[in-house]
C-alpha cells in the first residue's frame, strides 16, 4: 500500500497537489485530523485501496502535533509512505490570500494575516522536516503539478533521495534548500549574446562552461562536499536532501552544475533534478507571448 501525505502552509498549493494525486488514481482524503490517520489507513487497506493521499494541516487544529508520531508508526506498517510539505514565503502567501479573498484558518478576530502566517509557520516547523519540502513561492501551478507527478513516480525504495535544484539569487533562496552553493563567481554565459537565450542544458553553454577551469574546480568541490557528507545525512534518517545551486538568474551556470552533479550521483542514490528559475522563465515567456 502506498500512502502520500500532504501538509504545509495554508495557501501553499495543497489543493493543487491533492488534485494531481486524485487525477493519478489515488483515493484522496482532505483535512483529516492526524489522530485518525492510523484508523483511516487500516480501514482503506482492509477494503482494498492500494494508493491513498491524505492532507493533514492546521485546519485540523491541535491534532496536527500528533503527526510525527503517527508518521513514524505508519512507516512500520505500509510498504511505501511519502510525505510532501508545501511552503512559501510570507509575501507570496499574503498575495494569494489577497487575490482569492480567502480567510486564513488562524486569522481569528484581532489577528492579522501576517501574524496568522507566522503562527502557522512556527506550529508546522517540526513537521516540515518529516518529508520532501517544496517551496511554491514563485512556482506556476503547472510547474507544481509536474513536480508532484515527478515525486510520486520516483521508484520507491529505502534510503535517501538526493535533489539538485538550480535557482536564481535575484528571485531569492529557495525555502526548501538544505545546502546552498553560490556559483555567481564563475564566468557568466549571459554576456555572450549567442548564449544569452540558451540554458545550462544546451550544448553550446555546456561546451562554454566546460572549457573554464574554475567551473571544473567548483563542480568538483561541490561534488566532493556532498559525497563526503552524504553518509551523515543518511545516518540521520533523512528521506530527502535538497542541494541548491544558485547563480544570478538561474539559467546557465546553476543549471549546468545541477545537471552535472546529478550525473555524478545517479548511480549511488535516487536523484531528482529541478530547475526553479528556468521553469519560471518558461512561464514568463509564455505569458509574454499571449
UniProtKB/TrEMBL annotation:
Record-linked InterPro entries: P-loop_NTPase, RapZ-like, RapZ-like_N, RapZ_C
- Is ATP-binding one of the keywords UniProt gives this record? yes
One Pfam family, short name:
PapZ_C
Indicate the segments forming the RapZ-like N-terminal domain, all copies.
1-152
State where GTP binds.
57-60
Specify the RapZ C-terminal domain's residue ranges.
161-277
Q: Does the keyword Nucleotide-binding apply?
A: yes
Q: Which UniProt keywords apply?
A: ATP-binding, GTP-binding, Nucleotide-binding
**Binding positions (ATP):** 8-15
The record's PANTHER family line, in alphabetical order, gives:
RNASE ADAPTER PROTEIN RAPZ
What's this protein's name? Answer: RNase adapter RapZ
- Per the UniProt record, the source organism is Thauera sinica
Upper taxonomic classification of the species?
A: Bacteria, Pseudomonadati, Pseudomonadota, Betaproteobacteria, Rhodocyclales
